[in-house]
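Mods, move this if it's the wrong board.
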Amino acid sequence: MDGDESRASVLLRVLAVQGGVLVVGYITGIAKPHLDAALLSHFVSFVALPAMLFRAMASIDTASIDAHFLGAMLLSKWLVAALAGALSPLVLSGSRAQSAGLAALLSTCSNDLAFGMPIVVAVLPSLAPQVVLLAALQNLLVNPVCLLLLDVGATRAPRATAVDTDGRGGAGTSGACAAPAVASVSECHGRSERVAAWRGYTRLGASG
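Not the wrong board. Structure tokens:
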């Protein structure tokens, strides 16, 4: 009983710290103080998370690795990604490939190391190595496919826009006919910006 109570207290303390970080980030985002957020982002991406990942990987006891658990979790991620990709046209705009890749990333690329790891260590310390390996498998086997779909959709969108422009926005056409082509070009640029943003997100989540 004492062990359960101490574990619960540790879990509450971890959740309180994580909740405090979220609240501070929210308030900072609203207040928009004169802070260099890029510097903090680079520190987290290239110093803090890699250091934590290296320490966790170096201290893993290979005898504690459960291949069946990792296989089941990886399979569940693939199933969720496939389901999200199939349903993505219902909720996301853009090409089929772009919406599928983005939906798969949103549904599977969780912040396992930054937020999941402290909770697992507090509740089930024996599963901590599995979380690290699962994050590595996410970056190795799931994220590249999602990014490939985003790139395929991004390369196809300009071609479709060019065809649309040649058909309706060329010389000799009226302003009414050229307007849809201009709207299509603007939409294409917006999609490209969203793709670039999500590429940055996956690098920050290398955690994944």
